[in-house]
Fold this sequence. Notes:
Distance between the termini: 35 Å
Number of strands: 3
Radius of gyration: 11 Å
Amino acid sequence: MGEAMLTRQQVADFLGVRHEWFSRHIKSGPPFYRLPGNVIRYKRSEVEAWLKQQQEAA
């Protein structure tokens, strides 16, 4: 079975930011997948890799 996919709210909680802030900055955030029905999901491993990259760039 594949990796579990996270919702926007779950990613926002993981990053420690408000859902509204995260939604406004979606284009500069971690990679996402648009599923049927215009549903957006994230792979946790890709969110973690994106966060590490952001921390190293700071």
